[in-house]
Amino acid sequence: MLAAVRRTLLRSPQCARLSTIASSEASTTDSLLSLYNTDTRQQSGATFGDVDGATGVKALPIARPLLLALSSLVRPGPGAGSPDNQLVELDPSVFSHPIRRDILHLCVVQHLDCLRQGSASTKNRGEVRGSGRKIRPQKGTGKARLGDGQSPMLRGGGVAFGPKPRDFSTKLPRKVIQMGMRVALSAKIREQSLGVVESLDWPEIKTKPLVERLRELGWEKTLFVTGREEVPVGLEKSASNILGVDTVTAEELTVYDAVKWHRLVLDVSAVQWFEHTLGRAARVE
What is the pTM of this model? Predict the structure, then answer.
């Protein structure tokens, strides 16, 4: 009985018209999806498929290079051109990293933890000099119970739960520290507080000419970073007694120093060292 009713309904013109509409809507949906996939593939650019012809992987976008005007520590001569006309290209993966305040906080706290001496020490009741005789009888005096004279409740006694020498240093993964350095350098670029010079060689060991030159450039509170194994002798000795100026190698630079100093000035070798150590190629290796 039910089968006969079902066959009768299927043969009716209303049901046939509904089935035709449903099939047309399904074909229209399939065509729209195919068109969307085609447009998406065209907009996404080239894809790299494997040998078996599986679904391709979207290519990584090419980052724009970061250009920065080159400065000069030594005052240029009368015949030499201005170094501001020269540009230096910086790796965007190192000097244009997204700002991560949480990573900077981790690196700074870890550095400050490692600077703590951890030498605070107190004596507990077992280390205080004195007799172990009971001060007064346990009962009969009407006063509180007391033991020996080294009790923490008494003046001159030991310290309860006092500090002892310990190691406060903490550790962070190497990749977190490297990301912190990239974030710190990128933040200096955004703040316009990072300069690049061709060389940090200072011709003479004189403090006064260096102070005048730094005042001209507006580099009073500056940390000079070189990519060499040692800081040039002329700059190191000339800046050793200038307040607010210091020198360091790129290998010795920490995230804390990069965040603390108002301005960083790198030479070209330091830029190359950071790009080689923190760049995308180094992370792939």
Answer: 0.71
